[in-house]
Amino acid sequence: MAATIAAAPALAQEATTAVAAAPANLGLKPIAAAIAISVAALGGALAQGRTAATALDGIARNPAASGKIFTPMIIGLALIESLVIYALIIAFQLV
């Protein structure tokens, strides 16, 4: 146990040299990732709002068709959300 406590400062010193060797300037990659995910989230939110509004408008005009409208609406919302998730994955890969 004493050896573990005595070795901790040595391990910490190696970590500081590794951090010092890391590049200090990441460039514009984090900004590009933030812009990519924000544009994707904005587009996804607008598309989902438009999808829900159009589906509810169709259901309000013809309540008997609600079953035929609801399922494609849910599938469309899932596809829209998947595009936003893909943008998030790409944004994380940029950084």
By oligomeric state, this entry counts as: single chain
Low confidence ranges: none
Main sheet summary: none
Strand content: under 5%
Residue share in helices? Answer: over 70%
Tell me the number of helical segments per DSSP (H or I, 4 or more residues long).
Answer: 3
The structure class reads mainly alpha
Summarize model confidence as the mean pLDDT.
Answer: 84
The topology string of helices and strands comes to HHH
What's the β-strand tally? 0
Given this structure, which CATH class is correct? Mainly Alpha
What does it look like?
- The mean pLDDT is 84.
- The relative contact order is 0.13.
- The chain has 95 residues and is an all-alpha fold.
- The protein starts with a helix and ends with a helix.
- The protein has helices at residues 2-21, 29-61, 66-94.
Structure characteristics:
3 helices; mainly alpha; 95 residues; F1FO ATP Synthase; single chain
Helices, strands, pairings?
Elements: H1 2-21, H2 29-61, H3 66-94
Task: Please provide a brief summary of the model.
This protein is mainly α. The chain is built from 3 helices and no strands.
